[in-house]
Amino acid sequence: MKYYLSLVFSITFLQIAAQSELSLSPRWKFSLGDDPLWAEYGYNDTDWMSIAVDRIWEQQGYESYDGFAWYRLRFILPSSIKNAGTLRDSLLIYLGKINNFDQTYLNGHLIGANGFEATDALREDMSFIKAPTNYWDRKRCYKLPLNSPLIRWDAENVLAVRVYDEGGQGGMYTGDQSLRLTCLSDYLLVDFGREAFVFKEKNLVKNVFLKNVSSAYTLFGKFDLQVSHKNTGKDALEKELMFFLKPGEEQRIEVILPQQDHSLIVKYDVEIQRENFKLKFIEETPYILTPPVPDAPRIVGPSITGVRPGRPFLYTIPVTGKRPMKYWVERLPEGLLLDPNTGIISGKVDKAGEYKVVFHAFNESGHHSREFIIRVGDQICLTPPMGWNSWNCWGLSVDEEKVKASADMFVQKGLRDHGWTYINIDDGWEIHRDKDPKRDAEGNILTNEKFPDMKRLGDYIHSLGLKFGIYSSPGPLTCGQYTGSYGFELNDAKSFGRWGVDYLKYDWCFYDGLAKDTSHAERKKPYVVMRQALDQLERDIVYSLCQYGMSKVWRWGAEVGGNLWRTTGDITDTWESLREIGFSQVENQPYAKPGHWNDPDMLVVGYVGWGPHLHPSHLTPDEQYTHISLWCLLSAPLLIGCDLQSLGVFTLNLLTNDEVLALDQDPLGYQARQALVEGDIQVWVKELADGSQAFGIFNLGESTSHFTLSFEKIGLKSNGHLRDLWRQLAIGTYENWREFTIPAHGVVLMKVD
Q: With a threshold of 0.90, does the pTM exceed it?
């Protein structure tokens, strides 16, 4: 085994060092609306509401508010804090992260916008609200010289933060706001997130970058690498290196570790000489569980699909194995045709009924067959949609080439062979609010320059045996402030039909200003209007209601014709977001069934970023195993949200385990129930169509757990056969109980029969 580091001279994010500091988290005041006077030092805010800054304002009684709001904080800044720093040259004001855009004022003067320094000269500049959507994930950190006339030492200071929320979640939300002096460590950028670990032969390899961003200081010190086994805590490696960085200089540190069947904990400690503390960073290595796909054909994916009579039908038989492959279908209903070289079935079936066919696949290594049901009737979306959506990677920077490239990757990287089907464009394809015309003379919606021909794009996606999804809003504008469908619902539905759209995500954004109140009638109304428009088409379009779970949409989503409905706010690639969203899917459990699915939002594995700049998911490998396992147990829609061209071995492995995906696509459509909660351990149980059961044991805690499970206690058979789904491995029989080892934030996913 090899463990070694190499140093190469070859930009990154600021990591705030632990120093004597003044917390800025408590006692903020809050008001909806917008008034320039609210920035002023002497403004009287005593009648404003108090608000916490550790969570979005929607979680504090402002559920449906989008637009401007202000935060104000009064605090005394003692001059004694000047003695706490090494450099004593600047004051650093850290405001955490803000959703979406902001201007920050100190004592009535503009000091920053969206994390960039600004001055009063930009006070009237409104372009800050047109920044990239992913600025919700940008840290707001501002620096002022200690001799700045804006600072009031040993006196009251006022911070005023003007926030603009364009839709969805809003406000300050990290709860770690603080103020302190700068130190040498603030000029050292330690970037271990620029690259993900990659698999090379039997090793894991990545680079960590150190950069001196100062123009005046030379930085030198010590870089420590400590590696241990996550499940046992045993040490695996410790290395120490010295670094010396002149102003503007960067060092690259290559880390090479052996592959394991579990995560290694990798700790990076960086200490700068002359400072008595360390910058500490930690990450976990990826590991592969899914075994390689055999050369012989294996037909996977769902066992049923639905289509309405006379509507266009498109289905690609998902088959793994060595190419080239030949296909044949027994008892294919009249009106459908099979391409024997691609496995793409297309056409129309006019007569309602349940058609039981048999798929066959052949290659040089063998043959496989499997029964399949084509149900022609009044219901579609009989299993949860599986596909890709542009939002979590590209945000509003999406364009036709990125969409086509994603469709190509479905084929080239084999995702289509595992049942991944939809290629969905999210927001950003329409005309922006600042441009005209937005519609033609007949009221038909126009596309922007990034999407010159939607019909052509849809045809291209369909030619690959994939389905085409699009996005709109019932309001006059979308979340990104592009053209919405309000008042033109039928026009837009007809446009979607002409373009060959198969899936519509319909996002509540900007309908708040139209809804009279928060009653069920008002919440249902815009979705009924679009449903009626879609019903006039001679085309099946899966209808996704995106309104963040308001008014418990799972109770009435099916009533307004939804095939799936969002149950939460937007997910992000953090453990806190994943845990809050994934493990809250309890009350809605009875409402999931074939044709109607609870949607806890899209997947955040691989390279994400909400466009245009991407980064490896901040979720650890075990958290990503938890993410996929839980979503499959929940019968949730599976929409990949990463850049498919950057799809690495680990992410591809996560997305192509057919036994895990089979849980999601099981025709019974049973959403797993939360069967047990004991401390940090949760067990979720899923009933399957063949009479077997699956369960996931999740460890929400911060350390490895050895948990003894009583099968009878959670409603499982008291004895039977046990199969590890990630490893696709039979692990023997069991009786009433068994002990499992579950890593922190990780999962054990099993099937019993």
A: yes
